[in-house]
């Protein structure tokens, strides 16, 4: 098991990073980040959400990696970053994140 000294320990190294930009109005960006902080989803895509930390955006620790929602301060955009164990999981989580964000 890999131990980086920070956060969770992973059974295998994370290898598949991804990013999506989603255009949302300021009201929608605020609603999304508030919802993630107060009532986070049980899962995103095919991955279970283990914990949520909201400081500069919201980071969700997932079973097989992590996902971050960050609002741009200068554009009507939410940036979604993720890193997961497989490309299939990455695509599923990013699609689920976009679907969740657009539901706000």
UniProtKB/TrEMBL annotation:
Residues 54-93 form the Alpha-D-phosphohexomutase C-terminal domain. Gene3D superfamilies: Alpha-D-phosphohexomutase, C-terminal domain (3.30.310.50). InterPro entries: A-D-PHexomutase_C (IPR005843), A-D-PHexomutase_C_sf (IPR036900). It holds the Pfam family PGM_PMM_IV. This is Phosphoglucosamine mutase. It comes from Sporomusa acidovorans (strain ATCC 49682 / DSM 3132 / Mol).
